[in-house]
Design goal:
Blueprint (H helix, E strand, L loop, with lengths): L8 H9 L10 E4 L4 E3 L13 E4 L2 H6 L3 E2 L14 H16 L6 H8 L3 H12 L3 H19 L4 H7 L5 H12 L3 H15 L1
Parallel strand pairs: 2-4
Antiparallel strand pairs: 1-2, 1-3
Helix pairs in contact: 3-4, 3-6, 6-8, 6-9, 7-8
Bound molecules: zinc ion.
Zinc ion binds next to loops.
């Protein structure tokens, strides 16, 4: 589950334990002891959280060897027709494929086929953030990875992940992590040294 920690494990576990249907289609949970995976809203017995693994798609769960639950049918795309879930899923897919480009909220909304206002509302409702914030988190996660695994400087990294100026990258990074990109790299580099 790389690059996608916009939902924390705690949030997903909370949604699972409360059978929260707003997350249907957003993630799936699988239970090690039964080998079965479900939608968050499934009314089957709440599993022990130690046995639960989360997946972003039914395909991922199946590839990991889990079978779909007969009760909530997570293998069917949307058993109860939910147009908002389609919009949400399309938006997430679009952002995941296009975050490296200079793409605005307007571009995202018009690609998905709704107004920016409408999309912001749906997204905020179900994901707790706007598409723009979601894209920012994906970019910053990628930036962290590049800072720790490559020699690129902040400017190069900022451009690689879709920022048009170093200051907008810097501000977004600071907003999300509390550090500047170079501070972040320095802290983690010294951590590694200390542990070696
Ligand atoms: Zn189920």
């Amino acid at each position: 589950m790389t690059n996608q920690n916009y939902l924390s494990k705690e949030m997903m576990w909370k949604a699972t334990a409360s059978c929260d249907a707003t997350y249907d289609g957003v993630f799936f949970y699988a239970v090690k002891t039964t080998g079965i995976y479900c939608r968050p809203s499934c009314k089957s017995r709440i599993p022990n959280d130690k046995n639960v693994t989360f997946f972003w798609s039914a395909d991922d769960a199946q590839r990991a060897g889990y079978r779909p639950c007969k009760r909530c049918r997570p293998d069917l795309r949307f058993p109860k027709y939910d147009p908002l879930a389609f919009i949400l899923e399309d938006t997430i897919q679009l952002i995941k494929t296009c975050y490296k480009q200079n793409i605005s909220s307007h571009d995202i909304a018009s690609n998905v086929g709704v107004s920016r206002f409408h999309l912001n509302r749906i997204f905020k409702d179900r994901m707790g953030c706007t598409p723009r914030m979601y894209m920012e988190r994906i970019r910053i996660n990628k930036a962290k990875e590049l800072l720790l695994t490559t020699e690129y400087n902040s400017t190069q990294i900022g451009y690689q992940i879709g920022y048009q100026s170093i200051s907008s990258f810097y501000n977004a990074f600071k907003r999300n992590t509390g550090f500047s990109p170079s501070q972040f790299r320095a802290i983690h580099a010294s951590n590694t040294l200390n542990h070696d």
